[in-house]
Write a structure and sequence with these properties.
Layout lengths: L1 E2 L7 H19 L10 E11 H5 L7 E3 L2 H14 L8 E14 L2 E16 L5 E16 L2 E11 L12
Parallel strand pairs: 2-7
Antiparallel strand pairs: 1-4, 2-3, 4-5, 5-6, 6-7
Amino acid sequence: MNTIDNINEDGAALARVDALLAGYGAILDAGEISHWPELFSQECSYAIYPAVDYERGLPLAYMLDDCHARLRDRVTFVNEVWKGTVESYRTRHVCQRTSAERDLTQPDLINISTNFLVAFTQADGTSSILCSGSTEDTITLAGESALFNSRRVLLDGTPARYLVYPL
């Protein structure tokens, strides 16, 4: 692995990674979940775990979507099946990339770690912290953009409310 945390080493790759991270939060915060699967490659996975359980080898997930079709299924559930049955809330994602490494055997793959904080606002205007944690991502550089191959979300604690939307 070759660390590329220094933006001078591969600024174009890091710019694409950072644009993907920013776009991810922007899509979810705007309530545009139908565009969420577009941020993932066709061969992808997405999972949310309690960090303490994951670290102990108990990977029981809050969410586990192990292929692109399941990402699209989650969008359908949120937009159609659960519509009107769950209290919606607005989110605000704040993230900070903490590391980035390129796999020298697959130069189009970058592994990153990110810390995040997600705040939420309920219909009555009350805001609070939904959750905090970190992500471990594998990202494919695709042309002039980047896509998630895998996104593993590790939560620091129990979310403040049920999780309907991806984090």
